């Protein structure tokens, strides 16, 4: 919520909500920083239903509101550009269209009132015994004007509707571009974060499993150095296709960064996710890459994949950190393999 939005509350209500926010923060061990207060003030006022729903789910799952969780809540729902559109951000084109539509409707209402008065006058004169022929002509004239006004209004509103469709399409395309990695065509980190937050909430509410696999291309830097970044980009697109082809429709593949790709699998436990990861690993290992400019067959590519399953109550950072650790263990133990988080736990016990 912006500062301007805070000012809309009267003093007594704002004070009561501030006290409630402070109580919530104290109850859940949240440090009284300005950003944390903004989160819990909004929670107390229920100004953002998604924020309230997320916090309620975290509370129900006995989530500890540590600094990482608090930062995620603020950056997701309250930081600049994350709280959704506000009036000041509405495109000028949209405001212009809405102003025109409002003018059309206002004029139509005024015309209808004029028509009703005119027809009322005709009715009064008819009751007075006046020659009906002029009255009929007057009535026909008023009805003709009304039909013409209605036709004009229909045309204007139809044009407005088309303009709104154009604006909606532009906004949808802009949203799609903002959520897509330009090189691979996969969803980007922004889209990944949004999908992960919603999937996390569903997993905590329903008890359904949620798993993640993280893919890293083995020795990709050396491959880039030997064959050039153009060929490296070709490899990344190939990996993206292999990842997408190996997933279910409801899963989300994304580019995580650099040569790392990631996939979230709602409803999949660790064993299912491991099997999917192994399928992807094999398909990549079997690929043969040809240099487009020369037709040269390039050395094969392999990937190391880490797999982890979400644990209710943990933060997104903790969830992804375990998967990242499993992926790096796959690289340290020979590459071209899938390693699950259970191997991390086994090594921790062995080293204890």
Can you describe this structure?
By secondary structure, the chain is α+β, with helices and mostly antiparallel strands. It folds into three domains: 3-77, no CATH class; 90-178; 207-351, Reverse transcriptase/Diguanylate cyclase domain (Alpha-Beta Plaits), CATH 3.30.70.270. Helices cover 64% and strands 9% of the residues. The protein has 13 helices and five strands. It has helices spanning 3-6, 11-27, 34-45, 49-60, 67-77, 92-127, 132-178, 189-206, 220-227, 229-245, 270-285, 316-332, 341-351; strands spanning 210-217, 252-257, 260-266, 303-309, 338-340. Strands 2-3-1-4-5 form a five-stranded mixed sheet, sandwiched between helices. Helix 12 (316-332) links the parallel strand 4 and strand 5 (338-340). Helix 2 (11-27) crosses helix 3 (34-45), helix 3 (34-45) crosses helix 4 (49-60) and helix 9 (220-227) packs across helix 10. The radius of gyration is 31 Å and the shape is elongated.
Salient structural properties:
3 domains, alpha+beta, Alpha-Beta Plaits, 9% strand, five-stranded mixed sheet, elongated, 13 helices, 352 residues
